[in-house]
Each structure stands twice: as C-alpha cells, then as structure tokens.
Amino acid sequence: MLKFSGVLLVVGIFLSSPLYSRADPDTSLAHFPTKLIDDLPHLFITENAVPFVVGGFAAAGDWAVLDSRNSFQQPLANLNIQPVFDLGNFYGEGWVEGFGAVGSWSLGALTQDARLQEFGRDASESLVLATVVVTGLKYSINRTRPDGGPYSFPSGHTITAFCFAPVINHYAGTGAGIAAYALGTVTALARMEGNHHYLSDVLAGATLGFVIGNAVVYTPKDVSVSVGPGQMELKLAFN
Question: How far is Cα 153 from Cα 165, in angstroms, rounded to an integer?
C-alpha cells in the first residue's frame, strides 16, 4: 500500500504542476535515436561539472576510507522503518521507471498531451543512457557487494531513481522534483540498509543519474554580445 501511495503521490504532483518550456517537440519514435545522439554532448555541459566532480571525489573518498568498515548499514537497519526502505527498493527497480516512462509517452500520444509525451520520451531516454552507463561500469569494475554478490559499483537502483529526478523537475516543477529527489535518496539508503551496496556505490549512482537526467532535459543556449557607442547588449536565446 505504501509503495502504491508513493507512486500516486509523484503522479499527482506531476499532473497538477505548471507548464514547462518546450525544447524538442518531436516525440516520434523515429526521432528518438537522433535526440539521444544529440543529447550525448550535453553530458559535459558546465552545469554538470560541479556535481560530477563533487560526487566523483566523494565516491572515491568513501571507497578508500569508509567502505572498508561499511558503518552505515547497521545504523540504517536499526531505524526500524522497513516499509520506507521497501518503497525505496521498489522505486529504484528499472521496470517501474520503464513502465512509467513508456506509459506516459503512450498515454500522451493517445490523449494528444504534448507535455506528457515529451516527459515520457525524455524519461525513456534517461533510462536508456543510465542502463548503458551502469552496465558498462558494473561489468568493467566488477566490485564485490557487501553481501558477497557481484557488480556492486555503481548502484543500478540509485542511478535509475536519480536519472528520473531532473526530468520530473523539468516537466512537473520544483514540488515534484523535490519528491523525486527524496525518493531517490530513500532508494540509495535502502540499498545500503539491505547490505546490497556501499556508500560509494550509491553516491556514484546518484551523481551519474543526475548528470544523465540533466543532460537529457538540457536546453542549448545561444549567447550573443553586441557593443556600440555608449551601450552593450546581451542576448540569451533558448532554442
């Protein structure tokens, strides 16, 4: 019941949110690969630099210093809020986000709701990119999980939850964005509480997820500066 209520909360905030700024109105499936390729350079935009550097250093530092003790798992388990952690684990499942993304895209097409179509398309794109990134890293690094399983780094549940958050924030506004980031944080804590991941795993997942989601909804900006006698004009255009 708690899982279902959490999903309904996010959907409700999204549907009641203010209008968004349109960036790419072509929501056809044929255009999807083109948009995905066009968005790849956005991974390296300046807006992603600080989160990537800070998150990367934090993950590396935790791997080197804190993960050997895995000191976060037991305090989290002692909180005795298992239904909350169950919600986090559920929210981070790839099929949950995939159903929401493809379902929104399809429903938007049926109802001619442009905002819902674009949200579904961008949410799907963020999932595709996150899956490629997390799969490549998991198999290339092959870190052992704290519970003994393979492919610990980075956390797939966490990257899935956090790649959705910038997309929700863009299309549904700050209120829904805060809810999405909160659910992503619960997912990260749940992965540590269940002894599935170290702190560095979820920090890396959250960082990469944010960078990917932010790249997908990024709107390129054209800046021009003109200088004349006694005046200077700055033009900032959003394509």
Answer: 21
Greatest C-alpha distance within the chain: 70
Closest CA to 36 of 109, 155, 131, 173: 131
Contact residues for 13 (Cβ-Cβ < 8 A; gap 6+): 172, 173, 175, 176, 179
What is the chain's mean pLDDT, rounded? 86
CA distances from 128 to 131, 135, 191, 197 (A): 5, 11, 21, 22
In the structure encoding, which two tokens stand for residue 168, read together? 């929700």
Ranges 14-23, 46-55, 157-166: which has the least confidence: 14-23
Percent of the chain whose pLDDT exceeds 90: 78
Question: Which residue's entry shows tokens 């702190």?
Answer: 199
DSSP letter at 144?
Answer: P
Contact 212, 126 (CB under 8 A): yes
Measure CA of the first residue to CA of the last residue in the chain; give whole Å: 43
Return the pLDDT at 220. 74
DSSP H or E segment with residue 238: strand 231-238
Other C-beta atoms lying within 10 Å of the C-beta of residue 160: 26
- Whole-model pTM: value is 0.84
Reduced to 3 states (helix: H, G, I; strand: E, B; else coil), residue 208 is helix
Ramachandran quadrant class, 19 (left: phi over 0; alpha: psi -120 to 50; beta: rest): beta
